[in-house]
């Protein structure tokens, strides 16, 4: 299939997508994290292109806003159809650029989630709220479009998080200028290319680039709101950059999610949920289980079940259908994980499995690693590892476990594992996190609001609450 013939139709392979998103010449090379081979090239436009994109998005906004909810929902549903029609090509490119396998809860799953979130966001009804009705007058609350929304994303779930940002923004009548992570720009450019088969011109624009483009977007006077997903440190920088223009912000920042296993849990029954809670996307997930607290009575049994399971999970190149775990996406992240595990080992903690990456293997593969008998203050526990290394901490009283779970400045997700869901809910209510799951971890749903507590951010995504965060509230009273 040639680039010409794909313009109005479907893309069969990642190469077909690359043919329409790569610059004709030059650009920066993006490497496959599994092999070091070049995946493709990305143009890095710079300040002038950002200005042009914001101006075009501003000009496109009135007509898009005037369409109304029903028509915009129709566009989102057709955008979901376009994603589904191009799903395999998108998943292949995502796998090659990000590293995640096609199989398992990885690349195909992520592309499927893009379509699911677009459709769900099309379906929500946000009605005006009548607050008062008396003496022939009424006060009503509406949510009007904000303007141009700037969206800044990370490299771990680049397509899905792009959709989490753009779908509610567009649905609410805003236009969007998006800056993907410099590590995964091709995935977002390809996704936007597919979506823009459907959307009117300049409603959604992607401007690749690094931190400077993000900074320029966050301080731009014509950007009304920034949707940001990434690290807490960058979130703080965005708060500062956006201060002079009093931008609205939704900040989905880093986490270091705790899981607490109560003594009545069945180690065998919960092992798989714990494993994928921690190792989904090879641990590179904001709301993944990153510290596991297990009661002393079942500590050894949980460690044994998890170790057995971790050893059965194939890790390797993403395009090999056998694999369910992939490489770390980049060298910096590989080094963070390797250094934290080494420091844990040096402190006397016990590595149950993993922990020894093969220096001969190309790519940033770090084996699935479980670390037991580790102190709660160890950096592998206290810092966000964002990779396939789970520390397992022993506790003896539930009070101690809750105190340790709440002991950090972040609070994105958490989980409680028990045979008694009511008891688990009581513990959950005492944990300082935006979401606390019972007997699962990290499950998100487009109908259920998601957001962080403490320094994991503010603002909510998904569902009706998510739509409200992409509108400016207006009361009409009289
Ligand atoms: P990052 O903060 O390094 O980068 C995120 C984005 O911000 C990139 O596009 C980057 O170019 C841009 N950026 C960097 N400096 C900037 C600045 N000063 N101004 C504006 N933009 C700037 O994060 P990352 O390494 O890509 O992602 C990993 C982090 O993201 C982890 O901490 C993870 O927990 C977090 N995360 C959170 C969620 C969530 O929903 N809460 C989801 C995924 C990832």
TrEMBL record:
<dbReference type="InterPro" id="IPR016163">
    <property type="entry name" value="Ald_DH_C"/>
</dbReference>
<protein>
    <submittedName>
        <fullName>Aldehyde dehydrogenase family protein</fullName>
    </submittedName>
</protein>
<dbReference type="InterPro" id="IPR044086">
    <property type="entry name" value="LUC3-like"/>
</dbReference>
<dbReference type="InterPro" id="IPR016161">
    <property type="entry name" value="Ald_DH/histidinol_DH"/>
</dbReference>
<feature type="domain" description="Aldehyde dehydrogenase">
    <location>
        <begin position="29"/>
        <end position="470"/>
    </location>
</feature>
<comment type="similarity">
    <text>Belongs to the aldehyde dehydrogenase family.</text>
</comment>
<dbReference type="InterPro" id="IPR016162">
    <property type="entry name" value="Ald_DH_N"/>
</dbReference>
<dbReference type="GO" id="GO:0016620">
    <property type="term" value="F:oxidoreductase activity, acting on the aldehyde or oxo group of donors, NAD or NADP as acceptor"/>
</dbReference>
<dbReference type="InterPro" id="IPR016160">
    <property type="entry name" value="Ald_DH_CS_CYS"/>
</dbReference>
<dbReference type="Pfam" id="PF00171">
    <property type="entry name" value="Aldedh"/>
</dbReference>
<feature type="active site">
    <location>
        <position position="252"/>
    </location>
</feature>
<dbReference type="InterPro" id="IPR015590">
    <property type="entry name" value="Aldehyde_DH_dom"/>
</dbReference>
<dbReference type="InterPro" id="IPR029510">
    <property type="entry name" value="Ald_DH_CS_GLU"/>
</dbReference>
<keyword id="KW-0560">Oxidoreductase</keyword>
């Amino acid at each position: 299939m040639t680039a010409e013939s794909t313009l109005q139709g479907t893309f069969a392979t990642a190469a077909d997508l690359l043919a329409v998103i790569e610059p004709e010449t030059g650009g920066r090379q993006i490497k496959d994290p599994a092999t070091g081979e070049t995946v493709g090239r990305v143009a890095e436009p710079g300040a002038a292109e950002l200005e042009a994109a914001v101006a075009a998005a501003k000009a496109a906004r009135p007509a898009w806003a005037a369409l109304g909810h029903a028509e915009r929902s129709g566009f989102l549903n057709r955008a979901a159809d376009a994603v589904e029609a191009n799903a395999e090509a998108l998943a292949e490119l995502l796998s090659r650029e990000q590293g995640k396998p096609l199989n398992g809860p990885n690349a195909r799953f992520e592309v499927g989630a893009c379509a699911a979130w677009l459709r769900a966001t099309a379906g929500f009804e946000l009605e005006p709220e009548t607050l008062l009705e008396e003496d022939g007058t009424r006060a009503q609350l509406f949510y009007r479009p904000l303007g141009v929304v700037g969206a800044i994303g990370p490299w771990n779930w680049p397509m899905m998080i792009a959709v989490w940002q753009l779908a509610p923004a567009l649905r609410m009548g805003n236009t969007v200028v998006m800056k993907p992570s410099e590590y995964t720009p091709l995935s977002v450019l390809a996704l936007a290319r597919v979506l823009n088969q459907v959307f009117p011109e300049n409603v959604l624009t992607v401007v690749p680039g690094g931190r400077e483009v993000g900074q320029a977007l966050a301080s731009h006077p014509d950007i009304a709101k920034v949707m940001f997903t990434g690290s807490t440190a960058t979130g703080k920088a965005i708060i500062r950059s956006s201060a002079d223009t009093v931008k609205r912000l939704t900040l989905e920042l880093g986490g270091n999610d705790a899981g607490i296993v109560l003594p009545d849990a069945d180690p065998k029954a919960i092992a798989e949920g714990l494993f994928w809670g921690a190792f989904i996307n090879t641990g590179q997930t904001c709301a993944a289980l990153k510290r596991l607290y297990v009661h002393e009575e079942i500590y050894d049994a949980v460690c044994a079940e998890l170790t057995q399971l971790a050893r059965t999970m194939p890790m390797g190149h993403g395009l090999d259908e056998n694999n369910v775990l992939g490489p770390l996406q980049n060298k910096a992240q590989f080094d963070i994980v390797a250094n934290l595990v080494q420091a844990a080992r040096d402190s006397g903690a016990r590595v149950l499995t993993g922990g020894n990456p093969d220096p001969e293997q190309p790519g940033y593969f770090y084996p699935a690693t479980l670390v037991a008998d580790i102190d709660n203050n160890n950096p592998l526990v206290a810092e966000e590892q964002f990779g396939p290394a789970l520390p397992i901490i022993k506790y003896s009283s539930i009070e101690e476990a809750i105190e340790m779970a709440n002991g950090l400045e972040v609070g994105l997700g958490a989980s409680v594992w028990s045979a008694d869901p009511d008891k688990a809910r009581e513990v959950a209510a005492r944990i300082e996190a935006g979401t606390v799951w019972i007997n699962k971890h990290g499950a998100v749903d487009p109908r259920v609001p998601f957001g962080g507590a403490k320094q994991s951010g503010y603002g909510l995504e998904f569902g009706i609450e998510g739509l409200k965060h992409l509108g400016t509230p207006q009361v009409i009273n009289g």
